[in-house]
Amino acid sequence: MFYSFVISPDQxxxxxxxxxxxxMENPEEASSESLKIGKSLWKKHCSSCHGxxxxxxxxxxxxxxxxxxxxxxxxxxxxxxxxxxxxxKFGRDEMPSYExxxxxxxxxxxxxxxxxxxx
Length: 119
Known about the structure:
- The chain has 119 residues and is an all-alpha fold.
- It has one domain (22-115): Cytochrome Bc1 Complex, Chain D, domain 2 (Orthogonal Bundle).
- The chain has six helices and no strands.
C-alpha cells in the first residue's frame, strides 16, 4: 500500500514508498526524550517550510512552487511510520533529502515521533 504527503490539491502523482519502508516499524518509543530530540530536529530542519506546528506555513513555504505539506491532516497521520521516515529521509521534488543532514536513522525515527504529535 502506498500513501502520499498532502502537497497540493492538484497533485497528480502519489508519492510511492517502497514496501521495505512502508512496512517498517519505528524502533524508537515516543518517550519524552525522543520527542525532545525530534522537536529539536524539527526546529532545525523542518519548521522553515512546514511551520512550527506542522501546518505547512513556515516562512519559506511561500517561496515554494507547491504548498508545503500539512502534517496535521488525517491523510498525513494515516501513513505508516515507515512511509513518513522514507519521505523525510529521501525527499522528492522540492522536498529535499535529509539523508546527509540527519544521517542517523535513530534521529529520523525521533523526528517521526515528533511529527505524530501534530493535530
